[in-house]
Amino acid sequence: MKTKLAFLVTILALGVLLTACGPTTVYTQSEPPMRTITVIGTGMITLTPDIAYVYIGVQTQDASASVAMDDNNTRAQALIDAIKAFGVDDKDIQTTNFSIYPQPIYDDNYNEIGVTYVVDNTVYVTARDLSTLGDLLDAAFRAGANTINGISFDVADRTEAVSQARLAAVENARRQADELAAATGVTIGDVQTISYYDSTPYPVYYEARAAVDMSSSVPIEAGSMQITTTVTIIYEIH
User: Fold this and answer.
1) What is the CATH number of domain 51-154?
2) What is the spatial distance between Cα 136 and Cα 129, in angstroms, rounded to a whole number?
3) DSSP 8-class letter at 212
4) Fewest 10 Å CB contacts: which of 26, 129, 172, 179?
5) Which residue has the higher pLDDT, 134 or 68?
6) Is 132 in a helix, a strand, or coil?
7) By the 8 A CB rule, do 56 and 140 touch?
8) Alpha-carbon span 121 to 81, nearest angstrom
9) Residue 217 confidence (pLDDT)
10) Candidates 3.30.110.170, 2.60.40.10, 3.90.45.10, 1.10.287.4070; correct CATH number of 30-49+157-238?
């Protein structure tokens, strides 16, 4: 009986010891970190603008607000009719500003001697045929337009150009990676991460102003635009 009791006490003591020591941790050698190379590639595509946006307006003024507004309405309607005569759709003509405000009149001594009322009516026109843009502006001037804030040229559909820029950027990045790998004696492996950024090309601006003698159409040059894509690619190397 004493032998069994002593054996039971020994087992309980061993259990307490194991519990106090906690679980056994086995350490193994970790895998070496992956070796990588990071490259930045750039792709650029040059485009010829095929669409233009232009603000065209009529400004009138008179000592009578009603006279200034009536004059403006007549000239603005003539302007819109002239624009439509060039085949511009209704959806491409949008009124962006109509305002009437008093403007003080001063004498040579800067004393206010009266008030004139100024009326502005501006339309935003989308021109989809650049070959007739100069003639369109000429017709607008002749119809009564006396303010043009500027012309911005753009590309209506950039989808294909953006795709080409992305492909060119990836090819440029891979070419750099291959050159660096060859120079350092390593081998390019799989792509680990890739990120990209498509730049938005700035519109090309052309400033046009009203002229007294418009004997010919306004000379317009659309120029060119560039779409640029930048990619950052991380390759595994061996």
Assistant:
1) 3.30.70.2970
2) 10
3) S
4) 26
5) 68
6) helix
7) yes
8) 14
9) 61
10) 3.30.110.170
Both tokens assigned to 172: 């440029």
pLDDT for the residue 63: 94
pLDDT tens digits, one per residue of 139-177: 999 999 999 887 888 888 989 999 999 999 999 999 999
Residue range 98-124, pLDDT digits in tens: 999 999 999 988 888 899 999 999 999
Band (8; pLDDT cuts 50, 70, 90) = very low
Q: Where are the alpha helices (DSSP H) in 29-187?
A: 65-85, 133-143, 159-184
Query: Which residues on neighbouring strands pair with residue 150, listed in sequence order?
Result: 55
Query: Which run of H or E residues covers position 35?
Result: none
- Which has the closest alpha carbon to 213: 124, 147, 142, 151? 142
Task: List the beta strands (DSSP E) in the chain.
Answer: 36-47, 51-62, 93-106, 112-127, 147-154, 188-198, 204-206, 225-237
CB atoms within 10 A of CB 177: 21
45 phi and psi angles, rounded to 5 deg: -125, 130
Q: How far apart are CA 168 and CA 236, in angstroms?
A: 21
Give residue limits of the domains in the chain: 30-49+157-238, 51-154
User: Could you tell me which residue, 232 or 211, shows the higher pLDDT?
Assistant: 232
